[in-house]
């Protein structure tokens, strides 16, 4: 009887031991799984925050966007280590930080993220704790019992910047008593796709025709003289405060000057000129036919002066006007300008950036085709003449608009709200 009893006790002991081992394994599995899921959750938080930080600056400066995304990641921890992102300056599609374009879903097509530097509006971030990454995989406590010491975990997010300034024509002068936009004579001002925004007042007189279907926004109000015969299309809205300069970030960026090339003085000859620093500016006289190579032209001295019956061809170009210079496009000149096309440059899409407060003048003719953003944050810009095609967006401290003919500003955005929106899309 004692032998049988001892045998039963031995069998029970074996079963108890096996049961405890199974329970320990199950508990260990739950603990390790929970730890890995928690690490993945923390990686997701880091990826979301980093993608949002990068998207905010991706249109301005790609490398700054990468740095900001990586910096935000470091303020997060996953599995007891800081979240580290490789900058991925090569923009490899499998990298930690990838810039590109996000196309939202339509009725006919699914949403898609395309890595690259064309029309950048999004940043993809992959936050990792994997064997081949700097911080390694997530270590397990109980998995070692069955020979699994770590597990690979990662999370990803894509954030995009949407909307835009909303303004095809923006006057920055923040004095509600000043006519920041003054229209007289008989011009036709056609602002397509974007609003007319003025921090000061808007005065429209004469027999001007002003067409802004997206509306007028001002802090100082909009009015016309008593004898005005102006024809105005678009609803007026009051701003509670001054709209900030949507391109103010460009004032903190300086292009590379390089060797001083003096002045471009065409002297009646047909010529091609390379981009670079011209401390005395660019002067094009009557009869000149000038073609400029793509790139940034830094113009001091006189700035950009185009007079008489001349021709200027400048495709993929930005004129960066400094040192007291100004823009003057006048006479019967024929001008063809398209903006800088460099997705890695903060100046991408800008055709003219005058940093000075000297008055700028554009006297258009029917032969003008000017595309891109025209930016005069400290200067008054005069738009006159009979011309058409005054860029896709024009920003100045103040505007004086006169003359005859149609002046079209073909804004490419379709958002009426002022400012950009940044949000997670995937």
Describe the structure.
- With 426 residues, this protein is of the alpha/beta class.
- It is 16% helix and 38% strand.
- The protein has helices at residues 2-57, 62-74, and strands at 77-78, 81-82, 97-103, 112-115, 122-129, 138-139, 150-151, 153-164, 167-171, 179-183, 188-192, 195-198, 201-204, 209-211, 216-218, 222-223, 231-233, 236-238, 263-265, 271-273, 276-278, 281-284, 289-292, 295-299, 303-306, 311-314, 317-321, 326-329, 334-337, 350-354, 360-364, 369-370, 373-385, 393-401, 406-410, 419-424.
- The chain has an 18-stranded parallel beta sheet that branches.
- A hairpin with an 8-residue loop joins strand 3 (97-103) and strand 4.
């Amino acid at each position: 009887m004692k032998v049988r009893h001892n045998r039963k006790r031995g069998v029970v002991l074996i079963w108890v031991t096996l049961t405890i081992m199974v329970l320990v394994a199950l508990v260990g599995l739950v603990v390790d799984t929970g730890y890995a899921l928690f690490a993945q959750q923390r990686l997701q938080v880091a990826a979301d925050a980093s993608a949002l930080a990068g998207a905010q600056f991706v249109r301005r400066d790609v490398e700054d966007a990468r740095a900001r995304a990586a910096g935000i990641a470091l303020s997060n921890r996953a599995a007891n280590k800081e979240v580290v992102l490789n900058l991925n300056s090569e923009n490899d599609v499998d990298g930690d930080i990838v810039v590109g374009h996000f196309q939202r879903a339509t009725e006919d097509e699914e949403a898609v993220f395309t890595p690259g530097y064309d029309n950048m509006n999004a940043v993809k971030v992959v936050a990792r704790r994997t064997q081949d990454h700097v911080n390694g995989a997530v270590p397990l406590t109980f998995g070692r019992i069955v020979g699994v010491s770590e597990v690979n975990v990662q999370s990803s997010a894509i954030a995009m910047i949407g909307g835009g300034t909303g303004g095809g024509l923006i006057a920055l002068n923040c004095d509600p008593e000043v006519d920041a936009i003054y229209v007289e004579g008989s011009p036709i001002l056609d602002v397509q796709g974007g609003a007319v925004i003025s921090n000061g007042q808007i005065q429209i007189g004469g027999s001007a025709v002003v067409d802004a279907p997206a509306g007028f926004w001002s802090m100082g109000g909009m009015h016309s003289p008593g004898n005005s015969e102006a024809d105005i299309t678009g609803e007026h809205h009051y701003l509670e405060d001054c709209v900030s300069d949507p391109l103010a970030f460009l004032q903190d960026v300086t292009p590379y000057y390089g060797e001083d090339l003096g002045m471009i003085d065409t002297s009646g000859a047909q010529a091609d000129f390379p981009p670079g620093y011209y401390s005395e500016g660019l002067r094009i006289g009557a009869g000149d036919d000038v073609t400029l190579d793509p790139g940034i032209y830094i113009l001091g001295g006189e700035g950009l002066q185009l007079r008489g019956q001349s021709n200027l061809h400048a495709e993929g170009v930005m004129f960066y006007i400094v040192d007291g210079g100004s823009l003057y496009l006048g006479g019967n000149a024929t001008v063809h300008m398209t903006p800088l096309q460099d997705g890695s440059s903060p100046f991408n899409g800008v055709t003219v950036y005058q940093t000075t407060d000297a008055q700028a003048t554009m006297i258009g003719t029917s032969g003008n085709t000017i595309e891109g953003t025209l930016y005069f944050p400290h200067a008054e810009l005069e738009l006159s003449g009979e011309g058409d095609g005054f860029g896709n967006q024009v920003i100045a401290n103040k505007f004086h608009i006169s003359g005859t003919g149609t002046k079209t500003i073909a804004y490419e955005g379709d958002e009426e709200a002022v400012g950009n929106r940044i949000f997670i899309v995937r």
